[in-house]
Amino acid sequence: MNPLTRRRALVPAVALLAGALLTSCSSDTPPDSPAGASQAAESDKGGDKPSKFFEQAEYERQLKLGKETPQGPAAKPWEQMLEPEMTDTAQYEKKGSGGTHLCFSNAGVFNPWRQVGLKNMKAEVKLHKEISDFTVLDAQGKDDKQISDIQELAGNKDCDALIVSPNTTATLTPAVKEACGKLPVIVFDRGVETDCAVTFVNPIGGYGYGAVAADFLVDKVKPKGKILALRISPGVDVLETRWSAAKLAFDKSELDVVDAKFTDGDPAKTKSIVSDAISRHGSIDGVWMDSGATAVAAVEAFEDAGVDVPPITGEDQQDFLQAWKDKDLTAIAPTYPTFQWRTPVIAALRILDGKQVPKEWKLPQPTVTQANLDEYLQEGMPPLHYAMCGCQDMPGFPKDWGGKK
Amino acid sequence: MSSQTAEKAQASTAAPYKRVVRSLGTGAPVYALLVILLVALASTDPGFYEPDRFLAFVKRAAPLVILAAGQYLVIVCGEFDLSVGAIVTAGVVAAAEVYGSFPDAPWPLITAGLLLAGAATGLVSGLITTRLKVPSFITTLGMMLILEGAVFFWTGGSPHGQLAEGFRQMGRGTAMGWLPWAVLACLVAGLVAVLLMRSDFGRTLIATGDSERAAALAGVRVHRARVIAFVLSGAAAALAAVLVGGFSGVSAQAGRGYEFEAITAVVLGGVVLGGGRGSVVAAMAGAFSLQALFTLLNLQGVSGALESTVQGVIVIAAVGLGAADWSRLRRRRIHSSGGRPS
Q: To 10 degrees, what angle do helices B280-299 and B181-198 make?
């Protein structure tokens, strides 16, 4: 076990090693490169190269959609649609009697957002008596498993319609294409690179989310204020679009983004990053976040440093809304609403009835503000619940969502 | 401070600087590295050594230091414990779940419960490793997967409760208004580890790692020593869970990656993988070095993605430097390895 040849390392050698490590860690590549393995997340250096995830036309479209009034019942945003282009579905009308069997290939339930979403979907299914069976296959975040899940469900004679929430965009495209030839397919949340699905359900999107949060800070923070941007991880399209829209807004403003850091969604890491930023820059005047999972940790970092919490952007997670109210924060919470999990079920039933649905079903993306905070903050819900679930009036609420009444 | 017996007879004739180097044992490089990093931090950020700031740094390092001390006990007797990260996660989530059901539970009870559960987990790993002869690498890897799966199954990935303020004080609050409780916990754990390694138990643990057969022939109950090491490692991980949960609140990934950070810290401290040599103080210094390095990278504005890269380089470099043959650069010295004639 114990190599007798082992010798003690020389102190100078270690000094050299440490020196080498320290000098090798200061590159200037922009933070937008998705590799994430050899970059300095120093956004005020050389960050002018547009991200490869940025599409000007889509950006402009989303900002425009954010100002539109959606069609449909205002009290049921999950049934609303923005600028719909309807498509005929008469060919998919279900013949014969008997209940409807809906099948769902889920990318996974690997985060609280997806867990709340799946609960919404299951509750929606319960609302419709005509659905006799609902089969869910969970891909556990693995592309290969989801490909075989989709093949299995598409080849299953019992499935009347297939709902897909793709794990990744490109890899799942062939499997979805194949399924489209066999039964009506409804894609939601992330997209795929084919328009063979009868409808693609998704909210306004990442540009809209990022811009709402950035515009709030531009409005609330004094010019020349120092902004800290906290991102989860590089290379994820839905998150990259949020950041690129925010970056555009900040570039146009007089605010100074002093740091853009990746937190991996880890609260301890977030706290460390924020306290380091406070000490490094003397003060932070605003915090922009691409998601709310670690917003409370960021707030606590300011408290622990003994300074006031500056204007901060979060998300509709219960713990953040609670902290917002309790600590009287200056905050905003753009959402990527979990109520979108209800819509595919509604869409599937309309398709099987032969009723028209939008080719792309664009859902509204409400924002939690100081004005409507009390409307969304519900006492007794678990800390990782998402308030924009559209589930408040569903049977089984709040118990089935982990809440207490 | 070194766990090795200083070779007094030789040392008295050696030059003073050699005596210093020798008393540091295999940990010498890590102290040098730590000093370099602390100097680099001071030059990067002049305010780093203000009492508040420095104590905040120690507070942040505390969980890793405690984990490294626990991991050291296991590694020095020739084993591995890969389950500590999962114990941290499970501890934080379990506490949140208990508070979800009993919001008024007294925090000392929860903390004691976590420590006992951590020790019990270590006991299971230790017994499986020693009695069933399953290599500890496999045992604790399995334990890690079991715990991670159990946590996910139990919570559906999103814990139900909030950690109570009282419970969070240990990781977040301060005693007497200036000294973080986490720093105190870290000091106490470090002191216990040092005293433990200076006791007979510590010596038998090193002897076990050095040569199991020789130790057994000399009357050491090697199985018992190893099981105790696992139990202590599990309890240390549970204490780290209390600190991590207190510091950052509920998270279903609270302990992710901690097992490798702890092993990196121990290796950085010059502790030989496979056991038999190294000091617990050096292992804890390794943890401080790692945290100092992360802080420095952060202050330099280096992306977090590089942290793991740097960690990998460090592990390989530390073991490589330790194993290299420096004899051509200086006169060969004969090591005493824990009193065993070599």
A: 150
A290 part of contact set with chain B, CB < 8 Å: no
Mind listing the pLDDT tens digit for each residue in B98-117? 988 888 899 999 999 999 99
Distance (Å, rounded) from C-alpha A55 to C-alpha B103? 48
B53-305 maps to CATH 1.10.3470: yes
Cα–Cα distances in angstroms (integers) from residue B265 to residues A96, B32, B75, B291, B292, in the given order: 67, 14, 12, 9, 11
A-B interface: how many C-beta pairs under 8 angstroms? 193
Q: What mean pLDDT is reported for chain B?
A: 85
Query: Which residues between 315 and 334 in chain A have a beta carbon less than 8 angstroms from any beta carbon of chain B?
Result: 319
Q: Which residue of A has its CA nearest to B291?
A: A272
User: Across chain A, how many H-helices and E-strands are there?
Assistant: 12, 14
* Residues 68-107 in B contacting A (C-alpha not used; CB under 8 Å): 78, 96, 100
Of chain B, the end-to-end C-alpha distance in Å amounts to: 23
Kindly report which listed range (A109-118, B45-54, B105-114, B140-149) carries the lowest average pLDDT score. B45-54
Distance from C-alpha of A374 to C-alpha of A10, rounded to nearest angstrom: 63
User: Is the pLDDT assigned to residue A36 strictly greater than 70?
Assistant: no
Does pLDDT of B9 surpass 50? no
pTM: 0.80
H or E element in which residue A228 lies: strand A226-231
Question: Does A256 have pLDDT greater than 70?
Answer: yes
pLDDT (mean) for B147-170: 84
Place of tokens 């800290």: A228
What ranges do the domains of chain B cover? Answer: 53-305
User: Using only C-alpha atoms, what is the Rg of chain A?
Assistant: 24
Q: Do A40 and B301 touch (CB under 8 A)?
A: yes
Cα A51 from Cα A247, distance rounded (Å): 10
For A7, which of B157, B159, B327 is closest by C-beta distance?
B327
Best mutation target among A271, A379, A384 (most B Cβ atoms within 10 Å) is: A384
Which residues does chain B have within 8 Å of residue A18's beta carbon, measured at their own beta carbons?
Answer: 33, 36-37
Cβ-proximal residues to A372 (8 Å cutoff; 6+ apart), any chain: none
Distance CA A314, CA A324 (A): 10
Q: Which of A18, A25, A267 sits opposite B37 (nearest CB)?
A: A18
Q: Is B250 on the interface with A (CB under 8 A)?
A: yes
Instruction: Dump pLDDT digits (tens) for A42-52.
Output: 333 334 455 67
State how far residue B320 is from chain A, nearest Cα, in angstroms: 9
User: Which of 161-180 (A) contact B at CB < 8 A?
Assistant: none
